[in-house]
Specification:
With about 350 residues, this protein is of the alpha+beta class. It is built from eight helices and 20 strands. The strands form four sheets. The chain has a six-stranded mixed sheet with strand order 6-7-8-3-9-10, sandwiched between helices. Strands 11-12-13-20-14 form a five-stranded mixed beta barrel. A five-stranded antiparallel sheet has the order 15-19-16-17-18, with no helix packed on it. The longest helix has 18 residues. The radius of gyration is 25 Å and the shape is elongated. It starts with a strand and ends with a strand. About 40% of the residues are buried. The mean pLDDT is about 95.
């Protein structure tokens, strides 16, 4: 049986539907990220799982037991928040042991559990310090140790890395993944950061407007989006809209403005219907010579370039359509200047076409 199951869970705030008929299953020991923009319902979902928001409709099961109406303190869930919520007057050890103390564990057991939790997050030598004496990353690890010390059945993390600088976020992602795999705890991690979700998750659930649009492993989510919403949201994409003019199996041709014809892969489309083609920007190839054997090849004008260290962003004009290309800044790749006329191309397999 899956560790956690949500069945048709709905949350209303007045007339606003914050979470709309959400169903998902999360397996034992799985690391799942809920990913989406602000206001999509991901944090509200986390709060309902934790017991901090009531469920208006639907059911939440943990290990087969209905916890929908259970108070938070009885759910056996560990929590790590965006703001670490450490007690400033307590030492690191006292903060980590707080939940154990509230459970009336013996002092000897508290000391042992705190020591193990701090060793897990590599902070055993800082047990006597106070939060004000720690860096942001160390405070985050203390918050994680506190959540793990009670040995919860489920760990919930609500954008815990958003207050850290970029390098520290990278380091903490590695640490969180290492700890989660070592402990084997089922984890739900809420974020709006795609890099964070892809680096951490076994599976990612994309949410928009209160609905779960797709749940899949990172590669499947990126390579084979289930719909235009997910395809447009994941990664940096070019999105061109036109009309379906022909199809053969899953190969579809749409005509965009100015007679621009694009061929891609799509399903459940009708002739003459509006459709949107989605191509990841790094899948767009630029060359001074027209490539052979590629169906989507278009003359274009380089409008602007942005050098970003490891890659260069090119803004291209294909007739009247703007197409962006991300090209590695490596000597193996051609470089172009604004005003040049070159060829932009992409493979049929890299072009996903959905009903608009």
């Amino acid at each position: 049986m899956p560790d956690l199951v949500l069945r048709h869970v709905t949350k209303l705030f007045g007339d606003t539907v914050a979470v709309d008929d959400l169903s998902l299953s999360i397996g034992d020991g799985e690391f799942v990220c809920l990913l989406g923009p602000s206001g999509c319902g991901k944090t509200t979902t986390l709060r309902m799982i934790g017991g901090f928001e009531t469920v208006d409709h639907g059911t939440i099961l943990l290990d087969g037991a209905d916890i929908t109406a259970m108070p938070p303190q009885k759910r056996d869930i560990g929590l790590v928040f965006q703001h670490y919520a450490l007690f400033p007057h307590m030492t690191v050890a006292q903060n980590v042991g707080y939940g154990l103390k509230m459970r009336r564990y013996a002092p000897s057991r508290i000391a042992a559990e705190v020591g193990e939790a701090l060793d897990l997050v590599r902070l055993g030598d800082l047990a006597a310090r106070y939060p004000s004496q720690l860096s942001g990353g160390q405070q985050q690890r203390v918050a994680l140790a506190r959540a793990l010390a009670i040995r919860p059945r489920l760990l919930l993390m609500d954008e815990p890395l958003s207050n850290l600088d970029a390098k520290l976020r990278d380091d903490m992602r590695v640490e969180i993944r290492r700890i989660q795999k070592r402990v084997g705890i089922t984890t739900i991690f809420v974020t709006h950061d795609q890099v964070e979700a892809f680096a951490l998750a076994d599976r990612i659930g994309v949410m928009t407007k209160g609905r779960l649009r797709q749940m899949a492993n990172p590669a499947a989510l990126y390579e084979t989006p289930a719909n235009a919403t997910v395809g447009s949201f994941i990664g940096q994409v070019n999105s061109l809209t036109g009309r379906v003019r022909a199809f053969e199996g899953e190969r579809v041709r749409i005509d965009v403005e100015d007679g621009l014809a694009i061929i891609g892969m799509g399903r459940d489309l009708r002739l003459g219907a509006a459709a949107t083609s989605i191509v990841k920007q790094e899948r767009v190839l630029l060359s001074r010579q027209s490539p052979a054997g590629t169906e989507n090849v278009f003359p274009c004008r380089i409008e602007a370039t942005t050098y970003l260290g490891g890659h260069i962003n090119y803004v291209c004009l294909v007739q009247s359509q703007v197409v962006n290309a991300i090209v590695p800044s490596h000597s193996a790749f051609e470089r172009f200047e604004p005003g040049e006329t070159v060829f932009a191309s992409w493979s049929t397999a890299d072009c996903h076409i959905f009903a608009a």
